[in-house]
């Protein structure tokens, strides 16, 4: 009985992780579609903001697009390039109205890591289930 407890815990943990990573993956695929599309739209800049969370500084653009206010994080280089301009070009697809990225943005690493996390956690779930069934 004592050997089954770690495998039961491992099964539940891996199952929860598989579900969590699987729920995030579709968002990453949407972001990758926008980033890879290369479709640029012109937005009206409202303001730029430099924020600091712990030791990392991030830059955010607030802008208007089709009458709605949005914001997106950008690199320091792009922020410096457009901060004093009235408009900017951002990657965007109409099918994902909340997603905007600076030109040159890539999500390929995020998608690959998401797929690997789902695969590894699903493998851990199956392995733990196998050990639980074998030990019964």
Task: Tell me what portion of residues adopts beta-strand conformation.
Answer: 25-35%
Alpha carbon gap, first and last residue: 9 Å
Average pLDDT: 90
Structural class: alpha+beta
What topology, given as strand order, has the largest sheet? 3-2-1-4
* Major beta sheet summary: 4 strands, antiparallel
Count of spatially separate domains? 2
Based on CA atoms alone, the radius of gyration comes out at 21 Å
Low-confidence stretches: none
Give the strand tally: 4
What sort of overall outline do the alpha carbons produce when their principal axes are compared? Answer: elongated
Specify the helix fraction band.
Answer: 40-55%
Order of helices and strands: HEEEHEH
What is the overall number of helices? Answer: 3
What can you see in these coordinates?
Keywords: Membrane, Transmembrane, Transmembrane helix. The chain crosses the membrane at residues 7-25, 111-130. The protein is α+β, with helices and mostly antiparallel strands and 136 residues long. It has two domains: 1-36 and 106-136; 39-102. Helix content is 51%, strand content 26%. The chain has three helices and four strands, in the order H-E-E-E-H-E-H. It has helices spanning 4-37, 76-82, 108-135; strands at residues 40-53, 56-65, 68-74, 87-91. It has a four-stranded antiparallel sheet with strand order 3-2-1-4. A hairpin with a 2-residue loop joins strand 2 (56-65) and strand 3 (68-74). The relative contact order is 0.22. The mean pLDDT is 90.
